[in-house]
Hints:
Layout: H1 2-13, H2 20-32, H3 40-51, E1 69-71, E2 78-80, E3 87-93, E4 104-110, E5 114-125, E6 128-137, E7 145-148, E8 151-154, H4 155-158, E9 178-186, E10 196-204, E11 214-217, H5 219-226, H6 234-242
Parallel strand pairs: 5-10
Antiparallel strand pairs: 1-2, 2-3, 3-4, 5-6, 5-8, 6-7, 6-11, 9-10
Amino acid sequence: MIRDDILNVLNNELSQKLNSDIEDRLDHFLECIDDRFDSDDVLIWLQEIKDTLPAEVSEIDLRQVNDGWRFNQETGNLEHTSGGFFKVIGIKIETEIRESGRGWNQPIIDQGTEASVVGLIKKKINGISKYLIEAKFEPGNYDRVLLSPTLQVTYDNLNKLHSGTKPLFAEYFNGMGNVKFEHWYPEDGGRFYKKRVKNMLVEIDEDFDIPYNFMWVTMYQLKELLKMDNIMNPHLRSIISYL
């Protein structure tokens, strides 16, 4: 088996001390070069979802935004009456180290320091490691639908603050899955105020049905899709970067 041959070379010829981290990196490398599945099926599936998407987005006057959104008369913040989701606040920056050579004021999104979790499910299917991704619509997405992790949710939505349904597969990131990694990664500090996102990879064994907007893909396919413009969202890219 090629995996055992490489480990023998590392151990015997290169005097590399083997450990679980080295073996995990080797397994990931072998997944990345396993080209039994190409990206064409993923692209066809993604385009079909875009073509039949029952959603339209249009800009409106910010003062017309309702559904619980309001400007706080005391702070001026744009926020939700529930106190959840996020708010737009103002900040003052005092520094001389940036491009302008002076400080500035700006609006910024405050979603809380620990507001979100994104996660990817991994599963062996017929002996091949595959990852469950979603073709996810977000109102601000470029081209409306992007490839996203299995789970991408704020804790407010996870707790159904929006009075909707609980996100699919959330239970696997709350004790049901074998957690392979779980780390906090910071968001873009130019747009978000002190926000970080929990990134997770969990591995499972059980079988289940998935909706049409989810698909099992290999790491080779994901790496090929990373080479294309406007396909993959930043949260999925973030998780892949750890592997």
